[in-house]
Amino acid sequence: MAIVFKKPRSMTDTHMHYCPGCGHGVAHRLVAEVIDELNVREETIAVAPVGCAVLAYDYWDFDVTESAHGRAPAVATGIKRVFPDKVVFTYQGDGDLISIGGNELLHCANRGENITVVFINNTVYGMTGGQMAPTTLPGQKTTTTPLGRDPATEGHPIRVCELLSSIPGVKYLERVSLDKTANIIKARKALMKAFQAQLDKKGFSLVEMLTPCPTNWGMNAHESLKFISNDVIKYFPTGVIKDEL
What we know:
The chain is α/β, with parallel strands linked by helices. Helix content is 36%, strand content 17%.
């Protein structure tokens, strides 16, 4: 019998702690598949900061180190400069990446560090209880915006890819979505291109993934996928934002 499906070598057998319907599990698998296909598992080092993915080292069967909240790009920079031939990537949520970690992200990108950033955008702080994040949509209810986010007082959601697109050191930016199968396939291709860019020593690349957070959105898994398709993508349009590869 021909084998048509199997677990990626870069995934462990550990049961994940994520909530039902969470997008992290899908994102983890996509990363693992790309690492396997590129045959760089033994050369890969991931950096996972504080957030829902703080236990990523339990799920990936390659080297993963931790960083303080928001500091993953700085840690990844140090690792890459010491080991320039390693494949180094960060895996960060929206609160981590563009709130407390905004400074690290901008300067890492501005230096054109040859790393890859996997950005999980689920529009809320997940691990700490569903507070408003820099990517929370206008009108979206969170534990800290129970009446809905008001841009007049809380500011507007930050479009990270568009923000980074003007920086010369940034070579590849793409926003993808994990709301349906066709888009998940596109997400895999985007990751492949971003990691290949690093292997080719092109410079900084980032893939933003729009992912569901049913628990903190107060939805079931099906409703959360529809929310991405009908609402999140309207504010964060998917597609290639910058490609200088």
